[in-house]
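re the bet — no i am not wrong, look at it urself. input seq straight from the record:
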Amino acid sequence: MKSFPYLKSIKKFLLDILFPAKCTGCRTKNEILCDNCILKIRPAERETERDIIAVFDYRDPVIKKAIWELKYYHKRYLGEKMGQLLYESLIEEIADLKTEVAGRSIYVVPVPISKKKTHARGYNQALIIARGFCHFGEPGVLELKNNLVIKKIETTPQAKITNRKRRLQNVRGVFETINPDLIRGRTIIIIDDVTTTGGTISEIIKILKKAGAKKVIGFTVAH
């Protein structure tokens, strides 16, 4: 069956008129996440793995709901907003990375999901967050790269595994780097919505460094 992008655009336009966005926290109209609710979100408190930085506490009901609605209710605009918040919260860390790259761009790599999950969901939520993150960056500093890492093996969703050891084993060897010539010597930021054990991002950091990346760090919305 043919796809007609213009029909999807018309449908989205009509839905936006009939059902305007409301703040995920307080339901204020024409807000995605209002400033008042953002200020109340708990910052990340629990320690993350080395080279992974999380901004918010996933136990906070507003950020948990926002991530849930992005992943399972197709509210992509929430991903763009979270990308903005991620950028604004970590602007000092980005500035530090900028001083190390000698005029080259910093690659931004969203955590990939499998082809099966992409087909079922219709999009990769980490990619949408990464796009929002890059959009708010200074021109020429952040460069989105969605073609450096793929998930080659379908796995049990990490959220369904409660044992830390099994979570780490579940992601071992499931990712693969491509375009290695682009990776060598580069500074790379990995973007994801949530980190729990850090196993997924740590595995990607490992394979990117093995491929020759100079520095790799993970940024996530919540922990």
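see?? The chain has two domains: 1-40, 42-222. told u. also The two ends are 40 Å apart (CA to CA). so pay up
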